[in-house]
């Protein structure tokens, strides 16, 4: 891959990092020939057999800039689907664009498409995702890479959505890429379709495709909407005659159908909009998204309309009821002691230490939650802890080899509800009820609590958790965690009958 990158799509600005979503990084998902990173968001209580949406960010963006802002996290919670967020690395492309035009990254079985396919496989393995309801979407360079994924792995996806993007194999060199972006490349539908058909030996039903473009886009020419429509109608066996023409929230919307009446392609022409993805902030059923650079508040939420086109609003049984409790910051803290527990004292740093510090002491974090709001008679079915990285040094999971960061659960408080020295070794109700995988950034969630850990959650007041390494690190290696509202305990439950 070239570090020249595709700078001509670098107009997509860096949106603020999302704070509301708890996206977590997943490693070890395959050979990863495209050298991408994998992030995911799982709504509380999602369970197995749910749909999966793959969302691809634009240039200079990241997974965290393309989760809450376009509305995908909100919709995942509303409709109950898992969200996969691949992330480009600057080592591959200096503007963090997906390399949508390089031949090494637009072919089946190679480069970035294979990395993304391996991420999908990992999600299916971990979540038992419904393989008949996997979808892919993206903005700008991510939209162009969406077309790549639909062309190279059509059997994987039930649908796709290209926002301010480009047709598959519109370019194969940097010079061609400039021309493709603006003024655009004009081919016949059959010529465009041939490029997709050559990408795989697939002969089955093609994914349905939603195409969005700002009519005033000066970064990626508006003409690309028509070229994309021609490509994907031709591939689906539809003609280019509009079968349904209407307006949605005042914006022109066309639908193209196959001869047997199946919706193959829809297009949205967003009049007056420049380069970006439209959102419609608010609390109504048609609202979603938050305005940010190149995430444009313009009275229609693309993610919501795309999800409806895919059928996600009727995605089956919704997730079970859930509650998320923020930490009680005034009671959170950490305790340090010698390896045998002697000389325990309460730590004084603002963030919460775990692992072995530079002073040679072993640190354990104490987290407090008021869990009395669980409905009377409800049966808790699942619980997990989410923590947020604040700093660290070394790798305490590797010294000793196979070390685990575990979560002890206490019904009520360990010693006193406010952190004190006795909390380092005070008995728990459920020891090592959950574990947290190695992390060095962002937020990460634990495994589900064990049955004894779930049973230990206090329905009438405080539940405290102690986060500690199962074995004391042999040398300086630690993490700092945020406290209070940046640490959450989530539970799902079955309502009383």
From TrEMBL:
Q: Which GO terms describe its cellular component?
A: extracellular region
Cross-referenced InterPro entries: AB_hydrolase_fold, Esterase_phb, Plant_Biomass_Hydrol_Est
Could you cite one Gene Ontology molecular function of this protein? Answer: hydrolase activity
Keywords of the record, alphabetical order, are: Hydrolase, Signal
Q: Kindly indicate where the leader peptide sits in this chain.
A: 1-19
Q: Note the Pfam families from the entry.
A: Esterase_PHB
**Know the name of this protein?**
PHB depolymerase family esterase
Q: Which organism is it from?
A: Kribbella qitaiheensis
Q: Taxonomic classification, please?
A: Bacteria, Bacillati, Actinomycetota, Actinomycetes, Propionibacteriales
